[in-house]
Every structure is written in structure tokens, then in C-alpha cells.
Amino acid sequence: MKQKVSIKEKIIDYVYTISDQPVMFKDLLEANNIYNEKMYVDSGKLGFRINITKAYIAYLIICAIVILPLIGITHYFLKNMDFHFSVLGSVLVTAAVFIGFNFFKSWIRDAITLKLIKKAWLVHFPFFAYDKYSKKVQEIYNEALKNEISKKDIRLYVMDKLVDKN
Does 65 share its domain with 26? Predict the structure, then answer.
């Protein structure tokens, strides 16, 4: 049965190039930790790269879908008004479009980050739901860093602590 793909997923698939390489356990822990702290995760850790040209194209299409109907509606009311209102409105809409691209880029970056973290989570933590255990794993990872657990022992440490907390 075919699964429905959301518009957000289509935009992500169009704008980003995703590596076929698996996400390493330590990189997943670090990415989860950084993402939960509401910071940007290094795209190299999760294996994705933005195609900025495609991002501009996707954003242009979204803007056209939103702005063109608004122009059609407001044109009727503004055609008999002082042209200064139209100029002011044009300046504000132009500023909103250019500022909006940064919000768009941030939004799709957060979406791809979460998507790839969840995908890697299924590989490394198949019996622990991401939504329920991501904060617990973050706490365990931070504890491991404080205790200076070696890179090769961190998987065992995290798994043991995660099982003990349940």
C-alpha cells in the first residue's frame, strides 16, 4: 500500500541531498543532545546537505502560492487609494519575503534533522520509542561525558543505563 507523502516531506526530499552512509552511534547521541537543546546539529554528523538553488525555488513557489492571491484580492481595494499605500505595502511584502526565507531555511533544516535522527534512532534503539526516550538518552549521554566514558564503551554504558532506568 502506498504511503501518503506530505508537502513538507516532498520539500525536504527536493531541497536536501542525504548521504547513504549510516549515522554512527556516537554521532546520533551527540545530534540528539544538540537537537534537544534547540541548537543546530552539524549536517555532516547526520549526512545531509542543502542545495540552496532548490531551496530558493521551493520558497519561490510557496511565496507565489501565497502572495499572488493576496495581490489579486488587495488590488481591487487599493486601486482607487493613494499610491503611497501601495508603495508602502510593496516594501513591507518584499521585506517579509526576504526575511521569510531565513525562517523557511530554519524550518526545513529542523525538519530534516529530526527526520534523520528518528531514522537513525530506529537503527540504534529499535526497542525504545524516540518520543519517550530521547530526553532520557540525552541525560545518560551527558552523564557519560561527565564520567569520561571512552568512545568505545559509550554504547554499552548508554544501553545499560537505559535498561536500568526502565
Answer: yes
